[in-house]
Amino acid sequence: MKDNGQSKAYLFSIVLIAIIGGLLFGYDTAVVSGAEQALDRFFRQATDFTYTQLLHGFTASSALIGCVIGGAISGLLASRLGRKKSLMIAGILFFVSAVGSWWPESGILPYGEPSLALLVSFNFYRIIGGIGVGLASAICPMYIAEISPANIRGTLVSCNQFAIIFGMLVVYFVNYLIRMNLADTPEQIQAAMVEIGWRRMFLSEAFPAGAFFLLIFLVPETPRYLVMAGRDEAALKVLTRINGRKEGEKVMAEIRENIQEKKERLLSYGIGVIIIGVLLSFFQQAIGINVVLYYAPRIFENLGASGDASMMQTVVMGIVNIIFTLVAIFTVDKFGRKPLLIIGSAGMMIGMLALAMFSFFDMIGIGALIFIILYTASFMMSWGPICWVLISEIFPNTIRSQAVAIAVAAQWISNFLVSSTFPSLSEWSVGGTYTIYAVMSLLSAIFVWKFVPETKGKSLEEMSALWKRKN
Fold it and tell me: What is the pTM of this model?
């Protein structure tokens, strides 16, 4: 700790704990990638109903319904209970979902007998986890943005995306290990996956979820929320430890100056800022990234890989995602938000167009894998982290909780629509589906170029002035 009261270790330890929420976000949303084919085979054994492709698309994506709910209520909880308590609630929901998805019978239904009632129970627990994801997806970046100094805010908020992708990589690897340790032969592994493999995959999330809940007790509430709650002394103490005494007092004065407007209506700065936030969320999903993340093993199998090889290729893709998320972390505060988003959109468009061509001409092999990696790498160094950075910082202080909730709810609605329609769209035309995602990538670049303001280096308090000028 410096003589002026500043402690970088304090700041980084807070952020490290907060981004575990991002890790759980990634873990929960990607765990289904290893389990969805086993779930498909399991529920197709049911005798009291027919498990269709449409139902499977819903089951693979049902957590996203909870994500919409969690995103929608995140603003209310963040405003009423604070950022810290809202993250605690998310931790509890993650844990309950992990245990419930492992044992959806809950001691009531017959164990291991697929039925419509069991499908409903399983999806209920997945939706519970989705609510936790929705809360974490909105409040983790909000928390980090409100706790971070302006000059490194983009980097620290991008660390949340790194945690999301790291959570996905961890669960890809965990899924692979669970699968490989079930039995010896491919046939035995497939049978064991249907019986117990998918259950173990979902249960594995309980361990990081429990750790997150306990560790959140150790972090402070954000200074901006503390001032809104009338706890100025506590806010200044946190600001001093993060920024040093002189800078902390300066930031405190800026917060007080803006906080008097805390009762402003959502549209006080015009509807434009809300629309931009919603469209950022929409395009992050409309380019099809979560189709690749949720259905990765299935996509690799369609491209010619065997079951175990497809799981390993998914792990390789996760490692690539980590590397390119680091590119964003180390460049977002140097080059700015807009250039990286536009470059990423161009890379995603090329990747998806190439995959569409491979599909149309029935060309499979290493070329397709290369372009999937190009596509995901482009996303991870741009829209993956930077969309969350912009959503956490672009809104004025006085409407941030409400506006972030709307943007995040829009994101999860878009995610659900894209992910749940992929199985049906791919039956229509895999190449045509990829072409749609390529067009969306092009439109996302045009949108950023024309409408999204650059926020690099601006304090959160400056957002009010920026949108007042535009209004």
Answer: 0.77
